[in-house]
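Lecture notes, part 5. Sequence design as translation. It can be helpful to think of inverse folding as translation between two languages: the language of shapes and the language of residues. The source text, in structure tokens, appears below.
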């Protein structure tokens, strides 16, 4: 079931991604998948827990998004920690 949802997400992103430029996703956590998913990265998670819930059982790990731009007034580390605490 997770594989089907993952593939559906890929298809929707490919169809809807015809706007020209590519912009980085502005979320603080990335999932790096391995195994059947190859070396794929998804930087669409607001918390570490959300990211881990997605990769659990699929083979992968979560890392801080190095292209994340926090909202004005917050540092990168503060924003990432804030998201983890708020959603824990």
């Amino acid at each position: 079931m997770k594989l089907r949802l993952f593939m559906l997400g890929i298809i929707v992103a490919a169809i809807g991604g015809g706007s020209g430029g590519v912009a980085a996703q502005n979320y603080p956590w990335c999932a790096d998948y391995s195994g059947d998913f190859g070396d794929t990265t998804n930087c669409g998670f607001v918390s570490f827990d959300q990211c881990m819930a997605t990769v659990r059982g699929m083979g992968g790990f979560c890392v801080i998004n190095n292209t994340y731009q926090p909202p004005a007034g917050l540092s990168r580390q503060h924003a990432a920690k804030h998201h983890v605490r708020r959603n824990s």
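The translated text above is only one of many valid answers, since several sequences can fold into similar shapes. The chain has three helices and three strands.
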